[in-house]
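Table S2 (text version). Query chain:
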Amino acid sequence: LDSYVIGEPTTNRKMYKYINMSVAQKVIKDGYITFRFQQPSNWDDEYEMLFYNADYSEITSEAKTHPKLYACCFTFDKICEASWKQYSGNIGAGKNCVRLHINKGAFRKAIADYAEDKGFKIYEGPVYYRGEYLIENLLNSSSSIQNENIKRQHEELFCGDFKIDNYLSLLLLKRVLFEYEKEYRFFLVNTRGRTYKKIDVQVPIKSVVDKIMLSDNCDNKYKKSFREFCQKEGIDYMLSEEKIYRLDKKFIGVTINK
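Corresponding structure-token output:
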């Protein structure tokens, strides 16, 4: 299977996707989950676009070292209160969030056939969180960089033979204020030159999702409804509940020894 790991290999076998409950119901009803890969130029964070939109003509004439590509993002953090809130919707069942437990190896295998058919190579790797100053200065000329640590990293990336690994390493940099995300990215790298606005890969949900988690903060009405829905669809065996706010022990006695 042609999947290339950028950076340090990880032993994590599970990845997580947070989606709102309304989307989860549609996914379960259809039996397929759509994984969207999009160009980094469409990301919200302008810092992350820097390296994708940069001009590399002065360091390489090989377009294949910085090709058009498409990314799909996951997290390794299964207990992140911010993510539960971020991916909740505004109305109805969608106000509640669901976390999907995704088998990384199964996901890689699921997108392999698509990648081979369309002429993509698969790359993957963990995001590295760094300060804004480093990210902003990596694109400066080596002679203008005052910080020795940043200068060393700049030279490692740009002063040797610039390869696609160097390029993808840049696309795995993110500001440290997002470190709570513990993000992991899969890239589809185009080898045939065709450009897409986005790429949607449909995968049978049962082939990649091992577990579906609800938050204990979920509205009881929608929690009950979602459980009944999953039972009807025959996947209630996947369903479980995450304890984020609830404490099993309601009273704790404090003893002061005199």
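Notes on Table S2: The first helix runs from residue 21 to 30. Residues 44 and 168 are 18 Å apart (CA to CA).
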